[in-house]
Structure prediction request, 297 residues.
Amino acid sequence: MQSENIQSAFYMMLGMMGFAVNDAFMKLVLADLNLQQSIFIRGVFSTIFLGIIAVKSGALKNSRRHFNRHIIVRTLCELGGTIFFLTALVHVSLADASAVLQVMPLAVTLAAALFMREAVGWRRYLAILIGFSGVMLVIQPDGSSAEGGGFNIYFLMLFGTIGCMIIRDLTTRNISKSIPSMFIAFYTSVAVMLMGAVLALFEPWKTITLTHLAMLAGAAFFLFLGYIGTVMAMRVGDVGFVAPFRYTYLVWAMALSIFVFADFPDTYTLIGSAIVVSTGIYSFARERKLMKSKTAS
Prediction:
């Protein structure tokens, strides 16, 4: 089990690198192209990548049986989260955006306690409160943040992303385990691609160069890598062990922010990020301890 946990940690870090590089590619592309056409073209590439794996793995067999309201709600939340996040990413640094999104596991825990009546003790409630205070340090509501200019509509969009992802994750819990993960990923990719295609009709289409196509193909590949890495991580090792490695996304995002965009995180971002990550890891550790005590009893 120890070797499987080490293997799963590697897969999770690989997956987080994939997501971070995808975000960096998209931020570069969105400096030149419109949002919707970028989503559409990336969606074409990612759908091809996922479609090949889905067909070979047999995940698309009996597709009609798999569709239900939970799949539909999850897909709609994925669409909303994509629009919110990529719109914000144009105006907010990659490091700041990634730091804000790291509060999502804590937010999911809070939502599960409030709406699904899952047991959450005072320690984890305190961790959630401290984690949100770390986010406030990152966005600096007094207006002193470097790129975003303080708390503005783009940071609100990041919170909109978190809201969509919370509903997505809670809905995912209600999806039957008999439905292949690759089926969900493939049809989500198709939905995002079609959304981009439809919305692109209502905005001027900008000239796309081979460089843009290469970056969008790279974004799609690393998005695919991110999904595959996280799925393999969760299926190979112990969930309680591997989950904190999700926070390595923040390390990749900050490194890319520095070396690709020459955007150095300020002290508030670094301190806020450390607070969010620390409280998140504590929350995971606390949950794992409670699970072990329940199993022992």
Notes: DSSP finds 13 helices and no strands in the chain. The mean pLDDT is 84.
